[in-house]
Design goal:
It is built from 4 helices and 8 strands, in the order βααβββββββαα. By secondary structure, the chain is of the alpha+beta class.
Length: 148
């Protein structure tokens, strides 16, 4: 069983500028309402420690492994509840340059495993958290790097 959450937003800055804010994990407590803190570095093969605070839900911490870290293009990690196959989440941020110099962000996660059906109700909070993250990222990038 699997389910996917996908959200999008356009940000008035280059993909590289968005990437710099997205991967400045130390600054997350200053602006990020969903991922309150991330410890680690965005490098393939490294483990991160991600502290979530979804709207309407309790906080949680998980330790995903970075699968893709292409500056200005994509950040992707895989987190697992217990051993693989129970409840796995492959989280992604894909940045694409728009013709006008802005960035299109696709922020999503594919959940898979035998426990996905049990967590389906809480995934609404996760979707709302992704939207809040996107809005806060847009505001952070555009206020720090206003369009010219």
């Amino acid at each position: 069983m699997s389910t996917t959450i996908s959200t999008t937003i356009d940000i008035a800055a280059s993909p590289q500028t968005v990437w710099e804010v997205l991967t400045d994990f130390a600054a997350y407590p200053d602006w990020n309402p969903f991922m309150r803190r991330i410890e680690g570095t965005p490098q393939v093969g490294t483990k991160l420690v991600v502290h979530l605070s979804p709207p309407g839900g309790g906080g949680m911490t998980f330790k995903p492994t970075v699968l893709v870290a292409n500056p200005g293009q994509e950040l992707r990690w895989l987190g697992k509840l217990g051993f693989g196959g129970l409840f796995d989440g492959e989280h992604s941020f894909v940045l694409t340059a728009n013709a006008d110099g802005t960035t299109h962000l696709v922020h999503g996660e594919r959940f898979s495993g035998i426990l996905v059906a049990l967590f389906k109700g809480t995934l609404k909070n996760t979707h709302a958290g992704f939207d809040a993250f996107n809005d806060a990222l847009k505001q952070r990038v555009e206020s720090a790097h206003p369009p010219r």
